[in-house]
Amino acid sequence: MDMQARPYRSVLYIPGSKERALEKARTLPIDAIIFDLEDAVAPGEKIAARETLKTALTQSYGNRTRIVRINGLDTEWGADDARAVNEMECDAVLLPKVESAAQLDELAKLCDKPIWSMMETPRGMLNAAEIGAHPKMAGMVMGTNDLAKELNSRFRPDRLPMMPGLGLCLLAAKATGCIIVDGVYNAFKDTEGLKAECDQGRDMGMDGKTLIHPAQVDVANDAFAPSAVEIDLAQRQITAFEETIAAGGGVAVVDGKIVENLHVETAKKTLAKAEAIAALAE
Ligand SMILES: CC(C)(COP(=O)(O)OP(=O)(O)OC[C@H]1O[C@@H](n2cnc3c(N)ncnc32)[C@H](O)[C@@H]1OP(=O)(O)O)[C@@H](O)C(=O)NCCC(=O)NCCSC(=O)C[C@H](O)C(=O)O
Ligand SMILES: [Mg+2]
């Protein structure tokens, strides 16, 4: 499946140093995995984690997208991580704290994989358009923990302090055709809070949610998949619009609401997403 067309409802971080978690991920119903060499790995374990991960990736992760998060290129590990990822059996490399397209040029010289960018600093948000437009860019990952730290903002259920940053990155991702996945929900045992944050991100246009624990997977998969009601509505909108066109009209009405060509495009995307999710399960 084309990397841009596939679902990214659930994107689970796994510390590259944790063999048990690396193994468990092969059994989880996740759309993508971020194999982490950055924040989830202690400095003393960084080099060993690179090797552990390389070995783990020689075994199949099925149709889950495999993304490796390296350390920043301004750290002692970053350049070696990037070269190592080039040799790993994975789909993409993820660079933390991206603030400019020039940083992606630097990464592209070391690693030929498609690039995903962590969007997690104020400067990164302000340069989101040039980052998204980089020719190697495939996806953005919101780093809302680092962003909150940089902004000195508080965590609130409505995420009001995050909105300018989330909005800038969403606009950039949609304008440039990148995938964009939302930040993590730290309280991994709080299913209700996670659901509310997933629903908010989905309503804003996020493609999915980054996760830190297997207990979060089902909530994200449900929130970011078209519901049965949405699929039924999309089918009825398409049928009604085709009948209207055949009768010489231009605007159909379904459930008391107008349906024009643009709504049909959205309806077709909904059905395509549902089909892509079903195909993952095959
Ligand atoms: C949060 C954790 C440290 C909790 O770990 P643990 O105490 O081991 O949890 P459990 O005992 O409940 O685990 C049950 C089983 O699930 C497996 N497990 C746990 N976490 C994962 C995982 N992430 N992926 C795969 N499997 C996982 C355990 O191995 C147990 O398996 P079994 O033995 O078969 O029962 C831990 O969940 C964890 O380390 N999570 C990831 C943390 C992480 O990656 N953090 C960095 C990313 S967040 C970030 O940096 C975002 C961004 O940059 C920003 O700025 O916002
Ligand atoms: Mg971060």
- What is the β-strand count? 10
Helix content: 40-55%
CATH topology of the largest domain: TIM Barrel
The biggest beta sheet is recorded as: 8 strands, parallel, barrel
Q: Reading side by side through the largest sheet, how are the strands ordered?
A: 1-2-3-4-5-6-7-8
What amount of the residues lies in strands?
15-25%
Bound molecules: ligand LIB3CWND, magnesium ion
What's the CATH C level of the largest domain? Alpha Beta
Low-pLDDT runs of 5+ residues are none
The CATH superfamily of the largest domain bears the name Phosphoenolpyruvate-binding domains
**SS-based structural class?**
alpha/beta
Residue-averaged pLDDT: 97
Distance between the termini: 13 Å
Report the radius of gyration as a whole number of Å.
20 Å
Write down the domain tally.
2
The tally of helices reads: 12
CATH architecture of the largest domain: Alpha-Beta Barrel
SSE order: EHEHEHEHEHHEHHEHEHHEEH
Structure, briefly:
The chain is an alpha/beta fold. Helix content is 46%, strand content 16%. 43% of the residues are buried.
What can you see in these coordinates?
46% of the residues lie in helices and 16% in strands. The chain is of the alpha/beta class and 282 residues long. The longest helix is centred in the last third of the chain and has 21 residues. The structure holds ligand LIB3CWND and magnesium ion. GO terms for molecular function: hydrolase activity; magnesium ion binding. InterPro entries: Aldolase/citrate-lyase_domain (IPR005000), Citrate_lyase_beta/mcl1/mcl2 (IPR011206), Pyrv/PenolPyrv_kinase-like_dom (IPR015813), Pyrv_kinase-like_dom_sf (IPR040442). Its cofactor is Mg(2+). This is (3S)-malyl-CoA thioesterase.
